[in-house]
Amino acid sequence: MFSRDELAYAMKSQKKWERLAVRFAAKEAVWKALGVGGLGLKDISIKRSGNGMPFVDLKELGLPKNRKASLSLSHSDNYAVAYCLVYRE
What Cα–Cα distance (Å) separates residue 27 from each residue in 17, 72? Predict the structure, then answer.
């Protein structure tokens, strides 16, 4: 379900399960926002920019360059939520 980078990021933390849960929520949010048939959650990889902001590279998914996605992730001990907005530039 998760990429090697996603697993490495999560496993180096004491809150590894929270990190994995919020990445799963983010993958589902991206998947639903795109509404692209044939795309699975395993195809979507949540990455981190140099300043730690989460993002998804839609070009890796074969989508046009003018499509962008904004992500918002949040988690606590008991909940994980994610929001994705996909738009055209």
Answer: 15, 11
Count of structural domains within the chain: 1
Half-sphere exposure of 73 (CA within 13 A, CB side): 23
C-alpha distances (whole Å) from 88 to each of 28, 35, 65, 69, 71 are 20, 14, 9, 9, 15
4 token code pair: 């090697």
CB atoms closer than 10 angstroms to residue 82: 21
Owning domain of residue 79: 4-88
Specify whether the CB–CB gap between 44 and 31 falls below 8 A.
yes
Q: Count how many residues are written for the chain.
A: 89
Q: Which residue reads 């962008």 in tokens? A: 68
pLDDT digits 0-9 by tens, 2-50? 999 999 999 999 999 999 999 999 999 999 998 877 788 888 999 999 9
CATH number of residue 68's parent domain: 3.90.470.20
3-class secondary structure, 60: helix
